[in-house]
Amino acid sequence: MLYSFLTSLIDTYSFLNVFKYITFRIGLSVVTSLIIIFLIGSPLIKYFSKKQITGPIRQDGPIDHIIKKSGTPTMGGLMILIGIIVSTLLWSDLNNIYIWVVLFVCSSLGILGFIDDYLKIKFKNSTGINAKIKFLGQFFISLIAILFLVYFTDHESISNLYFPFFKNLILQMGLFFIPFGIFVIIGSSNAVNLTDGLDGLATVPVMLVALSFSLICYLVGNTIFAEYLQIQYISNVGELSIFCGSIVGSCLGFLWYNAPPAKIFMGDTGSLSLGGSIASVAIIVKHEIVLAIVGGLFVLETVSVIIQVISFKLTGRRVFKMAPIHHHFEKKGWAESTVVIRFWIIAIILALVGLATLKLR
């Protein structure tokens, strides 16, 4: 909105030419979303507290969670979504089709998560939407996004899978790309959701992944940098770095309220939308495998749940004291803040490893 308006005035006011630079608008998107979160954060938390919009705590979880976290407002993902959407609409080129794809995924999964949170609050249990219905919702949202990318964009390499550390190793998936893309979006969405179990645990890793992909989008969308790094150049994807920047700013602002002890929880409203929208960005810029590296913490959390379920069903024994794995370490006696900070460190290391793949080819 503002981008189109300001650039239309460049002939009259030449100094407005700065708004043509993606790097400048990335900074604006970060700052704008951050300010939005600070403006609406406290009033929203007070309103949610007054209306008793609080999420139920897992009864099988650590006992101190039930004592300390009961009564904490949830649905904090609403403020994150507002920051992301408003900032993206203000500073991105709305003629760019990829912007609308990621906004669709972000808002649609946000609505699905909102319904899930609402049902948990209404019926005062941690079940929410029926698991099958929730999966179907994620499936159809992902399917629409992937089909749109395949049939309604000029993305020539959309069905290719590029492998990091290799210059010319490319897998042409053809129609298999459709189920693959759906799997990536649903998997990432649920992975962030599983990780969001401790104060601030998911917020910082999401911010790191978004920051990494803001850089990746910029490099992939720039012919000079793409050629230098020997990565696939994809036209018009540089605008997605502004969307990623808005995620960084929103998560940074949300962390102010979500840092231990949290004043508000993200809820499924935030976790489902953040995971899915970052995955859609990774698919568009063809760095799906890099997403698994940069977001390795989310992969670890998901794998721990899968191992726990399979082990219990086959042998009747649990590999971990509790899954996801962050609860395992709590059960072993680690303080919540210790678990969170150490997992943040792991997330930082994985983000650096993922970014290193851009050069090591």
Structural account:
The chain has one domain (2-356). It contains 15 helices and two strands. The longest helix has 29 residues, at 22-50. Helix 7 runs antiparallel to helix 11 and helix 8 packs parallel to helix 15. The chain is globular. It has 361 residues and is mostly helical. It has a two-stranded antiparallel ribbon with strand order 1-2.
| Number of strand segments | 2
Domain tally? 1
Strand order of the biggest β-sheet:
1-2
Oligomer: single chain
Summarize model confidence as the mean pLDDT.
Answer: 92
Report low-confidence residues grouped into runs of 5 or more.
none
| Portion in strands | under 5%
- Helical residue percent? 55-70%
Gap from first CA to last CA: 39 Å
The string of secondary-structure elements, in order, is HHHHHHEEHHHHHHHHH
The dominant shape is globular
SS-derived structural category:
mainly alpha
How large is the count of helical segments? Answer: 15
The largest pleated sheet is described as: 2 strands, antiparallel
The radius of gyration over CA amounts to 20 Å
Helix-strand layout with pairing:
Layout: H1 2-7, H2 22-50, H3 63-69, H4 77-91, H5 97-123, H6 131-152, E1 160-162, E2 170-172, H7 177-195, H8 203-220, H9 223-229, H10 240-258, H11 267-284, H12 288-294, H13 296-315, H14 325-331, H15 336-356
